[in-house]
Amino acid sequence: MIKIIVDTNIVFSSLLNPANSIAEFLFNSGDCFEFYAPSFLRMEIEKHKGKLLKLSQLQEFELEEIKYIVFDQITFVHEELIPFEIWTESIHILKEIDSNDVPFLALSKYLEAILWTGDLKLQNGLSNKGFDNVYSFAQISMLRDRLRKM
């Protein structure tokens, strides 16, 4: 199984519309991928709960049900398990891109996993710094297709 780190915008998109292609991918890729996220993601989603409710036009109990289903696809890893050296390196890499993504990059490095993001600025910034283990939805979809043909 290939390990995939999902960032906040991937989960946000899945919660916003659980019938979209990103959510479908999360729900139907367990044969190829194991999904992970830092525990920090739970706080990020909670912080944006009002925005999610407004944009989705869901009732709070509906959003909570969807959140439970989406979170059930993800293994959450406590940040304190990640070695200090990886944190330091991740902070250095992301200081000019987006420091909010440090937990995701650190976890990706720690688990030697692909970082899946919908954030083009993050993807381009990491690629420019030599970190090529960051994938867009199109790239991760192509990888799944190749794996299923094997």
Features:
alpha/beta, five-stranded parallel beta sheet, globular
Could you walk me through the main structural features you see in this protein, from its secondary elements to its overall organization?
With 150 residues, the protein is of the alpha/beta class. It has one domain: Rossmann fold (3-Layer(aba) Sandwich), CATH 3.40.50.1010. It is built from nine helices and five strands, in the order E-H-H-E-H-H-H-E-H-H-E-H-E-H. The protein has helices spanning 8-16, 21-27, 40-47, 49-56, 60-71, 84-94, 102-111, 120-128, 137-149, and strands spanning 2-6, 33-38, 74-77, 114-116, 134-135. Strands 3-2-1-4-5 form a five-stranded parallel beta sheet, sandwiched between helices. Helix 1 (8-16) packs across helix 5 (60-71) and helix 6 (84-94) packs across helix 7. The longest helix is centred in the last third of the chain and has 13 residues, at 137-149. It is globular. The mean pLDDT is 92.
Please report the total strand number as a whole number.
5
CATH topology: Rossmann fold
Distance between the ends: 13 Å
Q: Just give the CATH class.
A: Alpha Beta
| Name given to the CATH homologous superfamily | 5'-nuclease
Q: What is Rg?
A: 15 Å
In summary, what is this structure?
The protein is an alpha/beta fold and 150 residues long.
